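Morning run. Coffee first, then this:
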Amino acid sequence: MARILLISANNHCVPYPVYPIGLAYISTYLKEKMPESELRLFDVNKGNSSDLEALINKFQPQYTGISFRNIDDANSMNKESFIEDYRNLVNQIRLLSDSIIIAGGAGFSLFAEVLYKELQPDYGVYGEGEASLVSLIKSLETGGNPNTIPGLVFADKEKVVVNRDRNQYSDLRLNFDDQLIDYYWDKSGMLNIQTKRGCPHSCIYCSYPVIEGTKVRNLNPDKIVQTLVHLYRDKKVNYVFFTDSVFNLGKSYNRELAEKIIETGIHMKWGAYFSPKDLDVETLSLFKKAGLKHIEFGTESMSNAVLKSYNKHFTVKDVLDVSENCNVAGVYFAHFLILGGYGETNETVQ
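And here it is:
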């Protein structure tokens, strides 16, 4: 029976702490595929190094998976790197345990080879980690050779190997940890859920296609709704954010999901990232009936020339039209802007 410890290493709380959704999906998958294993979660936002030491000494994990979500705080005025904190975390685990350390998460996937060298885990997982982690642990438990597992990162003599083949899923269940729900709901006022993975767009600055791939996979809408109902009825959570790269990909799927939410009778409010392209009043009104409260548009510029340089798939007219549609439908919205980006000039700023 494998003893597995999963750690969320992200302690960046600006503007608010974010529930470690990746670990939630992985822990749910582990419990389904390896029900005989013992599993513990540790979140650095909730516990300090002394708490972690006590947990490791008591639990004695054989495998420790660490999720590295952020590389830095993305603040160009006063950039803070998190790499040293991550290195200290790995070193602490090394001192306390003989556990096999497995690195993963969005930040790790962006720089898998570099971070493997910097942090020196035993293994890493690139991209979606559910099946790769299960396959790795099962292989190690039986004395097999894990080196062909999709998404695995490992050392081969002096070389770091990154298996770029991806495991991709659409039928994932999500269970939240009750204690973490209480903490993040209290601190941030919302929880986060995915409805789909992958992004087909190629905006020049965006990391989503690297992390999740370019093929869009819609997750099982019935399982999403089950999670929403549980949060609303059992945990009294009434606001979630759908963390898809772009929510309004796949019109028929999104309509199906909205209609299923409406059928439950719950009053769950939600927000999401949207594209300004092809979003009419009728669709917005349906989403609003299903609980849509606010939209965050990845607009980035009000100049067609700059939008083109960013490799955006919409125009300024689309931005203006969708803003009017939101006003008509009564949905709150905001536009993100990048000033001084690639292709920007004094004229385009004006």
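Residues 83-96 form the longest helix (14 residues). Good start to the day.
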